[in-house]
Amino acid sequence: MNKTTTDRAWNFDGSTENDGILRPLCLQVESHFSLPPKRLWRYFATSDDSHMQTWMGLGEHYRGFHIPFSGRSVLPHYLLHGFFHPLQSGMLYEDSIAFDNLIYIRQSACSDLPVGFVTAYAHELQHFVQYGRTPKLWDVNRNLYHSIGVFEPNMIPSEIPSERDADITAKRIAEQVCGVEATNQFAEKQIQSMENCGASVQKARWVFFRNVPSATHYDLVRETLPFVDKYQGRIDFGVDTKQPEWWTGNLKL
């Protein structure tokens, strides 16, 4: 990755203040990860974009999201175009691609310092790791996340294995960066806030976050397999899950 691309990998939406505050926190978080060799673009919003809640269907309580290059078509133009280098005469398409993955952190999470921001960034960074290490497993979980409500209307999305994995990781990193007590206080605050506004699904997610031991070892393959067995033939997983060790190898894009 050249210097120009490296500089563009951090987009603070024009806020030098956020650059000074958030980048050091991100680097602390990243120091606890073994990141995949993918080109990561990070975007930290300074205002809310209604597109995310409506067209992308993230809901009012989302804190951020991770998306690979292949999913870019759902993004607003200012994010879609950010995946590419500025167009130059004679440039080949593959050479125009600057980044493989995007992590977007919402304005309200960026200002929820330090624990709220750290948990949001660590959560999305774990999704980036899932995609980078086992893209087929990530894709199956993505399809589970978007389809499970048809079959399990009372199931909360955060029960999907990839979400559990990301929440446990986020809690562990938050405790290491911000402290155990601060992390627990943040979780309690979120639970109370979600109860006050009647967001029972989000409340359940934060109850899990508060209660799960941060040292929990979570085997994403093992936890995903029962879902695949149960919904085989009913959910389009985007991967041939009937093959042995279907979770290995790369996605066909």
Protein model, in words:
This protein is an alpha/beta fold. It has one domain. It contains twelve helices and four strands. The chain has a four-stranded mixed sheet. The longest helix has 19 residues. The chain is globular and about 55 Å long. The two termini are about 25 Å apart. The mean pLDDT is about 95.
Give the termini distance in whole angstroms.
23 Å
> What is the domain tally?
1
The overall pLDDT, averaged over residues, is 94
Placed side by side, the strands forming the largest sheet appear as 1-2-4-3
Shape descriptor: globular
Name the structural class.
alpha/beta
> DSSP strand (E) fraction?
5-15%
List the secondary-structure elements in sequence, H or E: HEHEHEHHEHHHHHHH
Q: In total, how many beta strands? A: 4
List the keywords.
253 residues, 12 helices, four-stranded mixed β-sheet, single chain, alpha/beta
In a few lines, what is going on in this structure?
This protein has 12 helices and 4 strands. With 253 residues, the chain is of the alpha/beta class.
Write the SSE topology.
Layout: H1 3-8, E1 10-11, H2 16-30, E2 40-44, H3 50-53, E3 64-68, H4 77-80, H5 93-96, E4 101-105, H6 107-110, H7 115-133, H8 135-151, H9 161-178, H10 180-196, H11 200-211, H12 220-231
Parallel strand pairs: 1-2, 2-4
Antiparallel strand pairs: 3-4
